[in-house]
Amino acid sequence: MKADAHWHVVVLIALAPVIWGSTYLVTSQWLPPDRPFTAALLRVLPAGILLLLLSWHRPGPADRWRLLILGALNIGVFQALLFVAAYRLPGGLAAVLGAIQPLLIMLLAWLVDRQRPLPIMLIACVLGVVGVAILLLSPQMVWEPTGIAAALIGAACMATGTWLGRRWQMNMSVLALTGWQLLLGGLMLAPIAWLADAPLPKLTVLQVAAYAYLSLAGVLLAYALWFRGVSRLPSVAVASLGLLSPLAWLDSA
After folding, report:
1. Domain range for residue 236?
2. What range(s) does the EamA domain occupy (predicted)?
C-alpha cells in the first residue's frame, strides 16, 4: 500500500512538467509577440491571488524572507526568463536547456550539503539530457545568445529554488506555499512588465484562452503539484521529472 501511494505521488508530480512542456508551443503560436514579462505576469499573479483566497495562511516571521527568496527564484526570475527563452528560441531547444535542472541540483547538494551523487543517478540524468537533446535538436535550429542565456539562468534559478524549498520546510499547506510564491513573484514582475513590454493589443478569444490556460493549468495546477513533490520527495528526484517537459513539448508540437 505504501509503495502504491508513493507511485501515486510521483505520477501526480509528473503532470507538472508535462503541462509546462506546452508553454513554448502556446507562447510561440497564440500569445501576442514580444511581451515576455507581461506573459509571465498574467500567468502567475492571478493564480497566486486565487490560491491565497482559497487557502489563506499568514506566514510567520521566520518564513517571510524564505518566501521572498523562493518567490523570486521559482516564480519572478524563472518565469521572466522562461518567456524570454520561449519567445527567442525554438521550443525544443529551450526545453532541452531547461532539462539540466537535475544536474544543477546534484551539484548544489554536492557542494553545499556534501552529498555526493550516486553514480547511477548521475549517469541517468546525463543520459536523460543527452537523449532529449538527440530527440529535439536539429542543425537548422537558431542558437540565439540572449535566449540561450535566459534558458540556462532560468534553469539555475528553478534548480536553486527547488533545492532550497526542500531544505526549508515551512509550516503551511502546499496551496498556501504555492500561492505566496506566485503572489510575491507576480508583484516582482509587475513593474518590469509595465516598463519593458509594449501595451497589450486587443486580445482575440484564442489569446485570452491561451493566457487562461497558462495561468490555470500551467501555474495554479502545475505548481501546486510540483511543490507538493518538493515537500515529499528528494529534490533531485523531483527535478529529474523535469525531463518530461521537453518530451511533452515534442508531443504537443
Report:
1. 2-252
2. 10-136, 146-247
